[in-house]
Amino acid sequence: MSHIQPAAHRKETTQLHNGTVMPWFGLGVFQVEEGEDLVRAIRDAAAFGYRSIDTAAIYANERSVGQGIAAALVENNLNREDLFITSKVWNADLGYEETLAAFETSLNKLGLDYLDLYLIHWPVAGKYKDAWRALETLYNQGRVKAIGVSNFQVHHLEDLLQDAQIVPMVNQVEFHPLLTQKELLSYTRSNQIQLEAWSPLMQGQLLDHPLLQEIAGLHHKSVAQVILRWDLQHGVVTIPKSTKKHRIIENASIFDFQLTAEEMDRIDALNENRRVGPDPDNFDF
């Protein structure tokens, strides 16, 4: 594994269109159960310089995330403002009043006074506009620093923007070398919506890919580090999931090298429009 750089690198940030500052890099906790392993992972990540944690109501782990945050603040002498915490409203709670109530539930479980980013988890037809009005209310009340969406395609965004008072600050989507989302990336850039990658490592399915292994070898890096660096060089925020300390450290050690333009193009060319998660245009939950 490469040497560990100073934690300052992992505090590198992008500015959302409303001026809110968001780290380029964070810890995802999808499919991590409540309990000590999750609390410890957040503590380890914070000690190593992570300042962004991404959870969701449906992950059913917000209480442990909150415990990890509380411990990390004390152990690292941090203020709440030093962390960037994201959660998401689940499909069953989409609707104006329902979304407001779901937000309160998430805040209570996390033990926080506000969120840095709150997202609509999936674009459920006929429901996401009412939910978006609720997010706008929460934003205008100062309960959340930024609001956004997740798994929205271009046409979902176009539909939302017909009625929205506030343009989403973030769209979090499945994004990796086999699903490069070129049209969506271009659209979000032109509308000042920050794209964020979930499953950036394709849930581990890309780690033995020959081209990625070749490029990793040239840089004395792991395949995971190459993919996460590729995200950053495309201007995409990334939140890989891990509970293992050595992986948490490895994943974040991506600020000390650069992929060449040719390497970026070669990785882009791997696209197969292949998903590991549900299709935002065809889901039933």
Automatic annotation (TrEMBL):
Family stated for the protein in its record: Belongs to the aldo/keto reductase family.
Boundaries of every NADP-dependent oxidoreductase domain copy: 36-272
Cited CDD domains: AKR_AKR5G1-3 (cd19157)
Superkingdom, natural source: Bacteria
Alphabetical keyword list: NADP, Oxidoreductase
Coiled coil: none
Name by which UniProt lists this protein: Aldo/keto reductase
Native species: Paenibacillus lacisoli
